[in-house]
């Protein structure tokens, strides 16, 4: 793992090093660069671009031609994708945005827990860097109750492999006009924005790679307890929304061994596989 850390660091340092004292997030690069880093078991191709539509869309479009795990980082996205067909909005330099294409042994049904395992990897890394975060099911990272980071996992089966493209967007800075555009309160992490962006990316990639390797062997079960420790709304009254409509309500009881949300409802415990969860305040969804 240490090999990968330093190699990733070197690769990302192929561009001018940003200064820490600037009030804006430090830039990763202007032109596209491609390099490689190695874990003890895996090589990860690294691509950095100044701007693209969506790093997830880019990797999915090339999935059959990828030679192995590939990390694509963009300083800006013009058509960022979010969960459930939503958009992910950002401004150049305001967020760390990347996608990691990773090949899995499968089977496909084991992948239901992957978004939650990724949430654990990101939350633990960000917390280790001094910004405590919690996870809202399935995998939004919250800071003081507001969304700091989002994760979009898209899977694709090719003739000979099962791939997942894991897209992550972490709000480092949140300019007022961007928050207005998003239309709700959003968290940011100026402390992470001041960090060397290359070190931040290297720390995230390092833990993510370790989690993905483990997940591929074991599935989600060993991550469930870690996820539950980070659960933002454990024991809280929540509602489950499907396209904005309330479809369930109950007390959030964490996730099970495959990453389903457990809800204790009046009719007993139910396991939730998809949807959006919101805190239930005074009987109304938030
Ligand atoms: O919260 C969500 O709904 C998920 C947001 C995921 C955003 C990231 S940014 C990098 C990658 N590329 C995309 O188009 N989306 C993900």
From TrEMBL:
GO terms for molecular function: ATP binding; biotin--[biotin carboxyl-carrier protein] ligase activity. It holds the Pfam family BPL_C. One of its GO terms (cellular component) is cytoplasm. It catalyses: biotin + L-lysyl-[protein] + ATP = N(6)-biotinyl-L-lysyl-[protein] + AMP + diphosphate + H(+). InterPro entries: aa-tRNA-synth_II/BPL/LPL, Biotin_CoA_COase_ligase, BPL_C, BPL_LPL_catalytic, Transcriptional_repressor_C. It comes from the Bacteria. SUPFAM superfamilies: C-terminal domain of transcriptional repressors, Class II aaRS and biotin synthetases. PROSITE patterns: BPL_LPL_CATALYTIC. Keywords: ATP-binding, Biotin, Ligase, Nucleotide-binding. The keyword Ligase applies. Its EC number is 6.3.4.15. The keyword Ligase applies. Residues 1-26 are annotated as: Disordered. Residues 32-216 form the BPL/LPL catalytic domain. This is biotin--[biotin carboxyl-carrier protein] ligase.
């Amino acid at each position: 793992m240490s090999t990968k850390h330093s190699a990733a660091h070197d690769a990302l340092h192929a561009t001018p090093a940003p200064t820490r004292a600037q009030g804006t997030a430090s830039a990763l690069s202007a032109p596209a660069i491609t390099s490689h880093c190695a874990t003890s078991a895996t090589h990860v191709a690294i691509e950095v671009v100044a701007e693209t539509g969506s790093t997830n869309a880019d990797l999915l479009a090339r999935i059959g031609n990828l030679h192995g795990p590939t990390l694509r980082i963009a300083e800006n996205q013009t058509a960022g994708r979010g969960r459930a067909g939503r958009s992910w909005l950002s401004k150049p330099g305001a967020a760390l945005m990347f996608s990691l294409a990773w090949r899995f042994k499968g089977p496909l049904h084991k992948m239901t827990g992957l978004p939650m395992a990724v949430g654990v990897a990101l939350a633990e890394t960000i917390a280790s860097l001094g910004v405590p975060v919690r996870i809202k099911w399935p995998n939004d990272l919250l800071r003081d109750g507001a969304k700091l980071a989002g994760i979009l996992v898209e899977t694709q089966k090719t003739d000979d492999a099962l791939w997942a493209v894991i897209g992550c967007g972490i709000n480092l800075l949140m300019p007022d006009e961007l928050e207005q555009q998003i239309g709700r309160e959003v968290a940011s992490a100026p402390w992470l924005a001041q960090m060397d962006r290359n070190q931040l990316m290297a720390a995230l990639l390092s833990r993510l790679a370790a989690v993905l390797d483990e997940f591929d062997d074991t599935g989600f079960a060993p991550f469930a307890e870690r996820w539950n420790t980070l659960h933002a709304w454990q024991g809280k009254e929540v509602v489950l929304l499907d396209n904005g409509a309330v479809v369930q309500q109950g007390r959030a009881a964490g996730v099970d061994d495959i990453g389903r949300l457990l809800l204790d409802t009046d009719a007993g415990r139910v396991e939730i596989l998809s949807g959006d969860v919101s805190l239930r305040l005074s009987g109304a969804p938030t």
